[in-house]
């Protein structure tokens, strides 16, 4: 842990988690870019690699409902409108 010795091509560095002094070759790179000692280093959580199942969004095609057509009860079977006949009035 005490890194006060000389090693060619190596330098002193601090652990990003505990702050202890190590040589740069003794530190491990974490997935988020920090350098940590062997006791502080943890592998990336496996839940970070879980992917969702792709579900199709909506239907491939659709159409609007046709307009409602109501049959007028006053129409004749041939489709013509009957003439409006006034009600007979009783005369005295």
Care to describe what's here?
- The model has no long low-confidence stretch (mean pLDDT 81).
- The strands form 2 sheets. The protein has a two-stranded antiparallel ribbon with strand order 1-2. Strands 3-4 form a two-stranded antiparallel ribbon.
- The protein has 92 residues and is largely without helices or strands.
- It is 0% helix and 11% strand.
Q: Total strand count, please?
A: 4
Strand line-up in the sheet with most strands: 1-2
**Major β-sheet annotation:** 2 strands, antiparallel
Indicate the structural class. little secondary structure
Helix content: under 10%
Terminal CA distance reads 127 Å
Mean of residue pLDDT? Answer: 81
Percentage of residues in DSSP E strands: 5-15%
Radius of gyration (CA) equals: 43 Å
The coarse silhouette is rod-shaped
Contiguous low-pLDDT stretches (5 residues minimum) are: none
Number of helices: 0
Helix and strand element order? EEEE
């Amino acid at each position: 842990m005490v890194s006060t010795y000389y090693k060619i091509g190596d330098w002193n560095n601090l652990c990003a988690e505990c702050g202890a002094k190590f040589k740069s070759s003794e530190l491990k790179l974490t997935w988020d870019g920090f350098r940590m000692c062997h006791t502080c280093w943890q592998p990336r959580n496996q839940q970070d690699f879980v992917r969702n199942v792709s579900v199709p969004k909506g239907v491939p095609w659709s159409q609007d409902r046709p307009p409602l057509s109501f049959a007028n009860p006053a129409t004749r079977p041939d489709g013509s409108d009957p003439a409006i006949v006034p009600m007979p009035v009783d005369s005295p």
